[in-house]
Structure formats: structure tokens, C-alpha cells
């Protein structure tokens, strides 16, 4: 991605730049992650049934379930030398198909019964939940404070600090202050790992703006 020409996203008349963390994306080693993930028995209690998981017939004797997963999770689900995926397949008696490294696509779980497919899906969900904690934040939600009155008060404060403390306090200079036109209040940070998650965030914010803010 050209840092000087980033992707732009418009939300309620405001334009936001999408600066992808290219280093994180490009430096991930293909299919390499520790395989010491352990599943709590409590987490598997409800694996026998889940109405939110769509399972369809596959062939004459098997069943299939496909679902979207951001590709950044693939190495965590596969594991070193495919160890995690193989263990999941063995424990749930399913076949788990994952797109090749660097490619987008759905994960497909194929099994002889619905119970095994649901169990595999729940375990993958838990893997993703644990793995997401290891990934850096990608976006932040903020309220712009670049109102004329706020900027005026900010400049007054900055000038007062620089005048009274700038010459006597070490490290106090103009560089420690935010650019007035970029003043904002950060109210939350997010991990949006692909276009699908970014679109969900845009829809959620648009809904809040229409039904809560207005």
C-alpha cells in the first residue's frame, strides 16, 4: 500500500484513512504457531447443538459447514507443521479445509455428523478468541475536537506552558503538543482484521449515528 495514497473510508460525511499494518501482515510466518492450546471442558459443554451454525448435506453421507475467518488467523488455526489443525480433526473426527497462506476464503468443516462439525467450529472460535489478543490494534474510534473555540483555548494553553515552563523545564517544547487541527478524543480502539470486519464496524457506527446520536 502506498502510504501517500491510502484507502479512504467515508462515514457520515467524514473521511478516514485506512493505514494497514503492512509489517504485521507481511512478516507473519506461514502456518507457524505454538500448538500448546488447551480446551477447557466447560467450553465444550454445548458443542452438541448450536442453531447459529448452518450445516448442509455434503454428498450422500456427510455434512458441511463453511464460515468466514480473516486470513490473519489461519496460522494460529493451522499451527506448526499443521499440528493444531490435525489435532482438531482427530479430536472432532472432521476434515478442516483452510485456504492456502496469503489467500482469502472460507474455512470448510466436513464431518460424518453435526456434532463433530459443531465441536470443531466451537474450538476454532476459541482459538480465534485467544489469538486475537496477540494481535495489535488496527483502528481507533475518536471524537474530533477541532472546533474553533477549542483550538483557540488549546493554543492559549500551549503558549502559556511554553512561556512559563518552556525555558526552565526539560523536554517542554512545541513538539510535545498535538497539531491543533488534529485534536481529538479517543474513546475506543479496535482490531478490524479484514474488509468484512471493517464493513461491520462502519455499519455499526452508522446505525449508532442514525438511531442513538440523532
Automatic annotation (TrEMBL):
Residues covered by the K Homology domain: 61-129
SMART domains, alphabetized: KH
Pfam families reported in the protein's UniProt record: AKAP7_NLS, KH_1
GO biological process, one term: regulation of DNA-templated transcription
Record-linked InterPro entries: AKAP7-like_phosphoesterase (IPR019510), ASCC1 (IPR009210), KH-I_ASCC1 (IPR047538), KH_dom (IPR004087), KH_dom_type_1 (IPR004088), KH_dom_type_1_sf (IPR036612)
Listed SUPFAM superfamilies: Eukaryotic type KH-domain (KH-domain type I)
GO molecular function: RNA binding
GO cellular component: nucleus
PANTHER family for the chain: ACTIVATING SIGNAL COINTEGRATOR 1 COMPLEX SUBUNIT 1
Protein name: Activating signal cointegrator 1 complex subunit 1
Record organism: Melipona quadrifasciata
Source taxonomy: Eukaryota, Metazoa, Ecdysozoa, Arthropoda, Hexapoda
